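Consortium newsletter contribution from the modelling node. Members have asked for a concrete example of what our holo predictions look like. Here is one, prepared for the zinc ion complex that several groups have been discussing at recent meetings.
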Amino acid sequence: MTDSSPLKYLEDYYLSPDGKMIFTESYHLKRGYCCGSGCLHCPYDGIEVQEGRSSSTESRVQCPFCHESFSIPVFKEEGAEQSFIYDCEICCSPIRIQVTFTAEEQPEISTDRS
Ligand SMILES: [Zn+2]
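And here is the predicted structure:
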C-alpha cells in the first residue's frame, strides 16, 4: 500500500472560486522550495530561487475591503494582462487583482472586490 493521494484538500491546497487549484503555505513548506511562479501562499517571498527564470516585481496594492496597502509579487512572464485572486495580507479577503504591463514594462495594478 502506498499513499496514492499525497495532496490533501484544504491542508495542501484548496480551490479558488474559478476552480483553480491553489497550494497552501504548508504545502510549499513541505515541498521545501519556491517554484517561482508566484503562488498565492508562497512562503518564500522575495527569494529568487530559480535565477533568471522569473523576474518578479513588487507592486503595492490597496485592499478594497480594509483599505490597507501591501505589496505583491508580479511576474512579467505570466503575461501582459493578468487577473487573479489574492488574499489580503491584512484582512484575508479575496481581492481580484488585474495587472496590465505598460510599454515600459511597468505593472499597472487595479483591485476590486471579487
Ligand atoms: Zn484587506
